[in-house]
Amino acid sequence: MSLNLTDGEIHGLIAYARDKFGDERYPFAPALRPTREALAKLDPKPTPATEAFRAELGTAKKEQAAALTRLGIRV
What we know:
This protein is an all-alpha fold. The protein has two domains: 1-44; 46-75. It has three helices and no strands. The radius of gyration is 18 Å and the shape is elongated. It starts with 6 loop residues before the first helix and ends in a 5-residue tail after the last helix. The model has no long low-confidence stretch (mean pLDDT 78).
């Protein structure tokens, strides 16, 4: 399927989708995968919010591992 969209229309859709993902409680939910994949095809660059979320997730995992180690639970 080929869509005849102007650059302005494409950028408008991308901005709208990114804004909606920013408002999502669980932006990486499996149900949203098709939309994320389509958005990545339209605009493959990662957003700063996505990168910040991934960094925060990594930090949380490290903190969780440290807490379990303090409790004497091997990770």
